[in-house]
Design a protein that fits this description.
Layout lengths: L1 E6 L12 E4 L3 E3 L10 H5 L3 E3 L5 H4 L2 H7 L5 E5 L1 H10 L21 E5 L6 E3 L2 E7 L7 E6 L5 E4 L8 H4 L6 E5 L7 H7 L4 H15 L4 E5 L6 H15 L3 E3 L5 E3 L1
Parallel strand pairs: 3-4, 4-5, 5-6, 10-11, 11-12, 12-13
Antiparallel strand pairs: 1-2, 1-14, 2-3, 7-8, 8-9, 9-10
Helix pairs in contact: 7-8
Bound molecules: zinc ion (ZN) (2 copies).
The site of one zinc ion has 6 residues, from helix 2.
Amino acid sequence: MLLRFLGTHNAESKNTRLVSFLIDEVLAVDAGSLVSELTFAEQAKIKAILLSHGHYDHIRAVPAFAFNNSDRTTQVIAIPKTLEILSSHLIDGVVYPEFASETSFLQKAIIQLVPVEPFNRQNVEGYEVMAVPVRHPLDGVGFEITSGDGKTLFYTGDTGPGLSSVWGDIFPQLIIADVTWPNSLANAAKDADHLCPEMLKEELIEFRQLKGYLPKVVIIHLSPQHELEIEREIKEVAKSLGVTIDIAHEGEKLSL
Ligand SMILES: [Zn+2]
Ligand SMILES: [Zn+2]
């Protein structure tokens, strides 16, 4: 399984992109920066897009992607609520064409909306995908994704604390976790349902207690203004737990 991070931040600028990553170049996870970081040829390889929830920074590149790839149909996979937000707010026939409708654009559906139910394992282009509810507005989910050769990652999506309730259901070799703010903004993180380094540490301690191991961890969705502080604090967490925790950067690749 080869991961490629396209966007790893919660705010966009010349140097930072919104959250998206690719698995083996064919499966996209979240659509914050799905077009700006890929050539047209690279976009053409993508077969399916998983969306964790309906917030703008995770869905916004879907219409631009559909516009660029109108010669075929791409699956967009999410819980029904996320698909509904996408259909009613972005590809709604006002802001963008109704790309998921057969009667809207080029007389065929460019996007096939594929609903998933939490905890239902589903085959997506040869990968086993399971949506897992996490603590975040709009019924946000994380995804456990297993490749054909048995490599498994868990992406938390945007999440607040309380991941211990899902640890029993997943067996990842890699966790990609939301850490948006530093410890000094723990209250803001709690209010907005995100994690800071100290909160991630608590979640990982519970993971290890329950499962008897800790996988490699990569953090994502960082606030650019606080990145250095987060980096310092994450190093302390990694040291105290005796594990590797890396920060995802735009353009980085990771082999699992
Ligand atoms: Zn969110
Ligand atoms: Zn977000």
